[in-house]
C-alpha cells in the first residue's frame, strides 16, 4: 500500500505486510485462536507500523462511520481545554455529529491507547491536541481515512489540518512587550516541558527574543503536579530569595502566575513598579484577582470552533477544499501587572 493512499487499511494490508494469511491476522488482532508467539509479534508489529486499527463495528455497519468525532486532549483539570470543548460542541450541535472525549494526561503512550480505542469505533473525524505524537499514533492518524485536525499549535507540519496559534511567536511578542517597558532582570517559571510542547515553544520564542537584545533569563524553575496556585506561590518565593534583584517574572500559565501574584502582594512588593509579572492563556476565572494579570489570550474557544467547522465541512462534502493551517492571533492584555509607558 502506498504511503499516500487515502483508502482505509484492511486486513489484507496487514496480511501482506506480515506475510501471513488474513485469517491469522484476524485471530491475532482478536486475540483468539492458536497462533505462535513469533507470528503474533510479526502481525502486531506490521499492524502498528501501518497504523491499522481493527473495526469494532460489526455486521452491516462494518464499513460505515459513526456520527462521532473523537476529541483527544491532554487534561480536563486544566481549565484551558474545557473552553476548547465548548467551541467544538457549539459547532457540532448544529450537525448530526457528536464529540466524544479522550484524555491523555500529556503521556504519549496513553495517547496511543486512547487513539487506538477511539479509532476502532470508526469515528467520522478526529480533533487532537498538539502536533507531536509517537510514530504509532501518527501512523494510525494517517491511515484512518478520516479528517484529522491537530489543535492548539501551528509550529510544525500537521498530518492533515491544524488550527491554533504559534507559541514561539507568542513567546517572542511577550518578551518584546516586557523589554519595551524597561524590564531587564527576568525570571521564568513554568511546567515541565519535555511533554508540554506548547509551553516549551513559548519559552524558546521568549528566550530567542530576549537574546536578540542581549538579555538572558536570570533564573528559571519548572514543576509538575500539585496545585498550580500553591506551586506558583512557592516557586516565586524561592526564586526571589535566590535572586532578589529580579524585576520581572514570566510564567508559562495564568494559574501559577496567580500564585506568584499572591506571594508578591503578601511581601508588600510594588506591582508592576518594583516587579512586573505575566502569565499565559487569558483565563477568565482569574478576573477577580486583587490585580488583573498581564497575560495573552490563547484563542481557545475559537480554536475549538474552527476545528469542528473543518471536520463538519469535510464530513458533509469531502471534495470541498479546506484551509490546511488556520493560525489565530493572540493579543497581549497588559492588565495591572505589566506597566505601560
From TrEMBL:
Residue span(s) of domain HTH lacI-type: 9-63
Keywords (A to Z) from UniProt: DNA-binding, Transcription, Transcription regulation
UniProt source species: Maliponia aquimaris
A Pfam family matched in the record: Peripla_BP_1
Record protein name field: HTH-type transcriptional regulator GntR
Keyword match Ribosomal protein: no
Gene this chain is encoded by: gntR_2
Keyword Ribosomal protein attributed: no
Alphabetized GO MF terms: DNA-binding transcription factor activity; transcription cis-regulatory region binding
